[in-house]
């Protein structure tokens, strides 16, 4: 095989890598592990940019063409967004460089597995690394450009103050007053799943009164009163009751946890933190939840769709106050179908989600135990 043919094979390997979700998962995980400040951002936010950068970095092998402007624009956008989100440039570069190294390692391993000669592999990957280095420089340029623009605005000053307030570094009363926050008045803390700066500006405008900014990559705000009903549309948000400012940092952490819980169940719109209190408390003990799920539902196979359907129906039954008619309406099936599935679950596992007999564990605790076990079991991936 000629050198040109080997180069074509390497190009094919790299193009396959760019489309491989498993490669993207590894690169994202490596970047997040290398920089805790990056890992605090929503994982989807990391994936959004790294997917574009990875594809742009490996696209060199489409006829060995020079990179187009879209790759550079994506790199600059990554830098600008991280500046707006308050991620330090050193942390950003640690993440980018770690992800870059992991991508090269995967390419080398795949090239060797395909029998590509070392010389061809090294020469080819040197070109790839050069191109990715150019993208990295665009990340730095985008970051510093955005940082300079932000430093000229009062908005950035308010965002920095907001971060201090919700992360436990309370600003002075004078600073709070200048930012429009009453130092002595209770505030609602609102956390959203919106991380894109442009979308965050739109949502901020819809929510109305308050001081907003990106904290750990999520649009967050301190509000003197709850937004009007419907404000924010379908954007997922979690908001606390009004509390003194000194209590905000602890509740902010709970809001982030609650947001993850709500996202896993595909919830949308605004949710009070207190409405999610039970789920947040249970999420703090994942090992116990998994053990409970295995104990109650050990006879079920997580990879069996019918078994998952049985567990999902039982969970819906508990969520609907053990009402057959309400459960059937929620699942869009006949009540007899719900009854059949509950009977099959009891036959397979011995678990009955019906109300307990006299002398059983108190009803509330028994229901909580079953709900937690079913939810934890369903959270297992389908393999």
TrEMBL record:
Residue ranges annotated for the RsbT co-antagonist protein RsbRD N-terminal domain, each copy included: 23-158
Pfam families: HTH_30, RsbRD_N
Superkingdom of the source species: Bacteria
UniProt domain PucR C-terminal helix-turn-helix: residue ranges: 313-354
Matches recorded under InterPro entries: CdaR-like_regulators (IPR051448), PucR_C-HTH_dom (IPR025736), PucR_C-HTH_sf (IPR042070), RsbRD_N_dom (IPR025751)
Gene3D superfamilies associated with the record: PucR C-terminal helix-turn-helix domain
Protein's name in the database: PucR family transcriptional regulator
Organism: Amycolatopsis suaedae
């Amino acid at each position: 095989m000629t050198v040109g043919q080997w180069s074509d094979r390497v190009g094919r390997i790299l193009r396959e890598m760019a489309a491989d979700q498993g490669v993207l998962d590894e690169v994202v995980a490596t970047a997040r592990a290398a920089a805790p400040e990056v890992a605090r951002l929503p994982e989807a936010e990391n994936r959004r940019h790294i997917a574009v950068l990875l594809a742009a970095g490996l696209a060199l092998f489409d006829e060995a063409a020079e990179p187009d402007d879209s790759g550079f624009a994506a790199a600059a956008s990554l830098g600008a967004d991280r500046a707006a989100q308050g991620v330090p440039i050193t942390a950003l570069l640690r993440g980018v460089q770690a992800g870059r190294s992991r991508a090269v390692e995967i390419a080398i391993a795949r090239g060797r597995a395909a029998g590509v000669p070392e010389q061809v592999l090294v020469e080819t990957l040197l070109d790839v690394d050069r191109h990715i280095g150019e993208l990295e420089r665009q990340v730095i340029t985008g970051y510093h450009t955005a940082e300079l623009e932000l430093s000229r605005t009062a908005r950035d000053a308010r965002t920095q103050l907001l971060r201090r307030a919700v992360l436990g570094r309370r600003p002075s009363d004078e600073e709070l007053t200048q930012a429009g926050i009453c130092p002595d008045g209770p505030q609602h803390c609102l956390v959203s799943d919106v991380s894109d700066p442009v979308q965050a500006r739109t949502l901020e405008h819809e929510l109305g009164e308050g001081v907003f900014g990106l904290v750990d990559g999520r649009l967050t705000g301190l509000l003197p009163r709850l937004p009007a009903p419907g404000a924010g549309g379908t954007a997922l948000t979690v908001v606390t009751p009004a509390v003194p400012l000194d209590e905000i940092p602890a509740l902010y952490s709970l809001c982030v946890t609650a947001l993850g819980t709500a996202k896993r169940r595909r919830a949308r719109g605004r949710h009070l933190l207190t409405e999610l209190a039970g789920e947040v408390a249970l999420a703090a003990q994942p090992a116990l939840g998994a053990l409970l799920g295995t104990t109650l539902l050990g006879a079920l196979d997580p990879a069996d769709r019918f078994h998952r359907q049985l567990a999902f129906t039982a969970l819906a039954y508990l969520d609907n106050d053990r009402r057959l008619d309400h459960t059937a309406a929620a699942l869009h099936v006949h009540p007899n179908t719900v009854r059949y599935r509950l009977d099959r679950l009891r036959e397979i596992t011995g678990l009955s989600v019906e109300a307990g007999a006299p002398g059983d564990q108190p009803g509330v605790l028994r229901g909580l135990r079953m709900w937690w076990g079913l939810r934890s079991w369903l959270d297992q991936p389908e393999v």
